[in-house]
Design a protein that fits this description.
Number of helices: 4
Helix content: 10-25%
Strand content: 25-35%
Largest sheet: 6 strands, mixed
Shape: elongated
Number of strands: 8
Number of domains: 2
Structural class: alpha+beta
């Protein structure tokens, strides 16, 4: 049995009706996947398989928590995962993914969903994932403040360094490198 053998769904055994499979995606699962995005978590996966005329419909429902690094302080943070997805699977001669349909070899008669589960989780991680204000590692936030340069009117990521200290304002008199300052005068208006 391969390391992902428990995630095989034997489609040939489903001749009619609906079958439900449940999986616990824990730290061991994420360690086996060995991908840099998620190393730990606890996600419940429910997969409902329904036989249709020429295809099988797999409906995925994922719910749980994963641990990912905060973009700001790099400490682990919890990220809630709640996602539903459907894929259609049919038999063919070789494995392929065509538009919205996954083709699996008819000789095998099964599909391994381990990687599908992981992709659905990773695709639901927000691009920007940071701790709520005041929960970041204060040592790292202090180090970032010492090394960041900002302009007076820069409002992007307002509250980026919100922590509970009163003297945590960013120095407004930081000199901007003139090479960067000249880029502000570029006009992107093509009219």
């Amino acid at each position: 049995m391969s390391k992902f053998g428990q995630y095989n769904i034997i489609l040939k055994e489903i001749v009619e009706g609906v079958r439900v499979f449940e999986f616990d995606l824990d730290d061991a699962y994420f360690a086996k996947i060995d991908s840099p995005e998620v190393k730990k978590g606890n996600v419940k996966a429910k997969v409902t398989v329904q036989k249709k005329i020429a295809t099988y419909e797999l409906a995925f429902k994922l719910e749980g928590i994963i641990l990912i690094p905060c973009n700001r302080c790099l400490d682990d943070m919890e990220q809630a995962i709640r996602h539903e997805e459907k894929i259609e699977v049919k038999f063919g001669s070789t494995y392929a993914e065509e538009n919205e349909i996954v083709v699996v070899p008819e000789a095998e008669g099964s599909i391994n969903i381990a990687w599908f589960l992981y992709e659905f989780i990773v695709l639901n991680i927000p691009i920007k994932h940071v701790h709520p204000p005041g929960e970041c590692n204060k040592t790292m936030v202090d180090k970032l403040k010492r090394h960041i340069t900002r302009q007076k009117d820069d409002t992007e990521d307002n509250g980026l360094f919100d922590v509970d200290d009163d003297d945590d304002s960013i120095d407004e008199d930081v000199q901007v490198d003139p090479r960067w300052e000249s880029l502000q005068n570029i006009n992107f208006d093509n009219n």
